[in-house]
Amino acid sequence: MPLSTQSQGDAEQYVLVASLDNARNLSNILKAITFKDYAIFSATPNGLKVTVEDSKCLQANAFIQSEIFQEYTIKEDSVGFQVNLTVLLDCLNIFGGTTAPGVSTALRMCYKGYGYPLTLFLEEGGVVTVCKINTQEPEEPVDFEFCSTNVTNKVILQSESLKEAFSELDMTSEVLEITMSPSQPYFRLSTFGNSGSAHYDYPKDSDMMELFKCTKTQTNRYKMSLLKPSTKALALSCKVSVRTDSRGFLSLQYLVRNDDGQICFVEYYCCPDEEVAED
Amino acid sequence: MDCVVTGGNVKVLAKAIHSLSRIGDELYVEPQEDGLALRSVNSSRSAYACFLFAPLFFSRYTIPIGLAFRCKMAIKSVQAVFRSIATLEKTVEKCHIELDEQKNRLTFTLHCKHGLMKTHNLSFQDSESLQAVFDKDSYSNVFRSHPRLLVDTVVHFPPSLEEVTVSVSDDRMWVKNHVEDETDRSKAMLTELCLASDEFDHFSVQVQNSVTFCLKELRGLLVFAESTGLPISMYFDEPGSPVVLSVTDSVLEGNFVLATLSDDSNLRKNNTKRAHTPPPPPDDFMNDDMDSYLIAMDTSVIGPPNKKFCSLFFGSVLPPSSQMTTQPLTGQEVLASDSEDDVQ
């Protein structure tokens, strides 16, 4: 592939080189977390993690494992930088982002380290574009301290039915209330909008419910405006896991299959709306 | 009130609500003994629609005994319950409509596939009855056709077109766009279609005349009729009296009543008739609810400027008293008797 012949001498200078035959395998998943301009990139030998945060109350992470990349070389244990995500996506789609079969944009993403721009080599149909995007010092992402041992309730649903519910949610409601319980209503999404309240109930024995592990009845409210961006991730996913911990923090994990059928993950963490007390 | 709609009827109910939303912003709900009435009216009172679903339309139909229950709610809220017809068709097994009197909520519960349940608790306002007074059976001209005929006719007019004029002779119907007198005819585009009587299932003309009415409000009915395949009946009389379009089957009846433009001679005729109408009873002035007013004829004031649409005559129901009735007050002189609730 043409890009690999480029600047082989430079290869030594880069602390991170990641290549994809199909840039969409990166851009599609990044679109699922683009609700703010800036994203924190954190690369380890395991792969790439991209984090976007909103007002310290919402955090979205996209994980692209090293196996997804055709080439993935990292010279340090951890490489981190911050870039403008909107600009990055524009570059990844620089050839117009058409979805013509058989035609894809190849990507080689290179980073020399602290202070250097993120360099993207993009190729489609023999045409090569080089983009250099300025990087910033990465901010420390918020640690939501969400650990599996503290998880009180967990369900795994097929995205199909949740997509339907989210597309119908009453947007005049300021909050989305999630109730999880070992007894009725099991798993409930509620809104309180201008015309009244609405509830979406999923029984624990629904065939859409792949896993149901609820130990305690919990009702938590989350700002609708914070959760709205997660619908992009939901749209891409085939399965979603919903977990709440003892503090009422919410973790949504989406299983996304890319164009080549490989699995990536997107997760959202959200803190509960302060005014409401738990059950 | 406790009603259950199952299977394909859920979609029919949803489509009726969507077509009512093309008329007005509020949905008037009135469970009656002869069925559930859903009605809507536009702000200028020149278009009214009513769907009456017979008890047999439901798999369960229980209405409150004693005092009649009537309410109105924002139609957008109800539309939100039935947002996607395609999804409804695929996933909804039944719809349960229940009145929660303590909390003043009308609850719509959709039981869907995979055990999913969607519950919408909608707030409502009490309202007076909303009924237009018209007697379609007395109208001189009656037509019936498959909805396709009207849909195919209407498609030739741009969506922005406000009014159409329908003219009939013994064996033909012309449909053309209505152009304001002020408009320079040489600059306007005129479209006219001619339909022969044999394209209709029924074509009966007693008086050859023309009526002009608002097309936009009609389109809602056309969508409903086309999807259910029910024939549309059209009734009209002289200019100034409303045109009525109906769809009927054994378990439902839908009526769209649209005011027509009256020409000057008719305007005078209506004015004289109005003189006989008694003023609204004093009680109504204390009530802020617009619906309890007797909405009078001849809205050259209300409604689109420069139009002389005759508004529909609405029966008013007084606040609960010894005699609770949903019929217009007897003893008032009305232009036509109310036979709206005639359901076979």
Secondary-structure blueprint of this entry?
The complex is a heterodimer of chains A (279) and B (344).
Chain A (H helix, E strand, L loop, with lengths): L1 H4 L10 E5 L3 H8 L6 E7 L2 E8 L3 E8 L5 E4 L4 E6 H8 L13 E6 L6 E7 L2 E7 L17 E8 H10 L6 E6 L6 E7 L2 E7 L6 E6 L3 E6 H4 L2 H7 E9 L4 E8 L5 E8 L9
Antiparallel strand pairs in A: 1-5, 1-7, 2-3, 2-6, 3-4, 4-18, 7-8, 8-9, 10-14, 10-16, 11-12, 11-15, 12-13, 16-17, 17-18
Chain B lengths: L1 E5 L1 H13 L5 E7 L2 E7 L5 E7 L6 E3 L8 E4 H7 L3 H7 E9 L4 E8 L4 E7 L1 E2 L4 E2 L8 E5 L1 H8 L8 E6 L3 E6 L14 E5 L5 E3 L5 E5 L1 H13 L3 E5 L6 E7 L2 E7 L5 H12 L7 H4 L27 E2 L29
**Low-pLDDT windows of residues of chain A:** none
The profile of the biggest β sheet of chain B is: 10 strands, antiparallel
The number of distinct helices of chain A, counting runs of at least 4 residues, comes to 6
CA-CA gap between termini of chain B: 23 Å
What shape does the CA trace of chain B take?
elongated
Which oligomeric form is depicted? heterodimer
Strand content range of chain A: 35-45%
Largest interface, chains and sizes: A-B, 20 and 20 residues
Q: For the largest beta sheet of chain A, what order do the strands appear in spatially?
A: 6-2-3-4-18-17-16-10-14
Write out the strand line-up for the largest beta sheet of chain B, numbering strands in chain order.
Answer: 10-6-2-3-4-20-19-18-12-16
Helix content class of chain A: 10-25%
**How many E strands of chain B?**
21
Mean pLDDT of chain B: 78
Given helix and strand content, the structural type of chain B is alpha+beta
Rg of chain A is 20 Å
First-residue to last-residue Cα separation of chain A:
59 Å
Give the ordered list of helices and strands of chain A: HEHEEEEEHEEEEHEEEEEHHEEE
Computed structural class of chain A: mainly beta
Which properties best describe this structure?
heterodimer, A: 279 residues, mainly beta, nine-stranded antiparallel beta sheet, five-stranded antiparallel beta sheet, 6 helices, B: 344 residues, alpha+beta, ten-stranded antiparallel beta sheet, 19% helix, disordered C terminus
